[in-house]
Amino acid sequence: MQNEILNNLTQPLQLEKLYRNRKNEFRQAFLELYPQLKGNLLADAWYERLSYEPDSIQWGKRNDIQLIISIVLISGILAKIPSFSNLNEEFFYPRNIGFIILSALTAFFLWTQEVPPTIKYLITGFTALSLIYINALPVLESDTLILACIHLPILLWGMLGVAFSGSSPLDKNKHLDFLRFNGETLVMTAILAIAAGIMSGVTIGLFELIGIKIEDFYFKNIVIFGFPSIPILGAYLTHNNPNLVNKVSPLVAKIFSPLVLLMLMIYLGAIFFTGKDPYHDREFLLLFNVLLIGVMALIFFSIAESYSKRKNIYGIAVLLLLSIFTIIVNGIALSAILFRISEWGITPNRLAVSGSNLLMLIHLLLVTFHLFKSISGRQPLSIVGKNMVKYIPVYLIWASIVVFVFPLFFE
């Protein structure tokens, strides 16, 4: 990227195009290069532009504000469909919650990003067909239905990533930006959720003081209507204010990565000490897998946050150790699942979980290998991030198999 900046330094239009296509990579490369360019009028102007941090929150353009308000209102109305229809809540929410939130965000990025028309049609068509498909599955409860409802949001998340990438859907840096955007959105959403929870508690408490109980009304109308708006607004604020939580997110990663590593080490020792058996205890195995997914998410989020930063040996060492211990946890979980399959046969749940664990194990081994190369100085951390996101389509392919193929073969 630095060579591209130098080659286009006398061509302002080409420099602007380069920036718009790869903003984060451009910014990092330019700021590292700037000490050599100081005194160049165009370089000085770009430095001021890239270093500028607004003092107030940026709410976006008027059209964007109107669009996000419309999306929030529509999402709230969709969340209330069971209240004014004959649809059962247990039927509606597991099948459609991903569309209410993730597809709403996808629609925002399709509207605001420079997404090629072909990709827009593909995303819209896939979302529409998925909506029809998941709601057409039989009402009877089954393992494959539950698995489809769990894995479909992963596919919708993938569509959101494509929309976020805009005109560069194959750009690995865009994919890393998307992972970082997810982490920062989670932080912002958590802040908004805490604020909304405090406001709800105060509101209910104030009405209770004057003898009016509004808990049922408040939950059925205000909470359900407003619930989808929290992650949507969190994503919108993060998108328009990339500097708002970009100091908090790396701090979260730096604090929790070593703490989670310590917890994993103690937890693995405690398993052997207590004699807890994931091979025969189904609920314990389920919690084991939830822990695994959470730790993997932290590893990937930390790498996405750090890929454009300067090399930090301590941080990379923590991530490397965390990856190694997570591989051990994954190995235990996978062996327990395979043991259950050998003892009691294949079921949709066991096949889905074993497939997911195997994919995560392979992914973790690849990430660990590249982290080792990075800490030994053979490659920059940015290469770790790029190799990490190359594997994400594999998860999307597996999720699509679980959603669309499992119901045909196991029913």
From TrEMBL:
Membrane spanning residue stretches: 65-81, 93-112, 118-137, 144-166, 186-210, 222-239, 251-273, 285-304, 316-339, 351-372, 392-410
Entry keywords, A to Z: Membrane, Transmembrane, Transmembrane helix
Annotated protein name in UniProt: Uncharacterized protein DUF4153
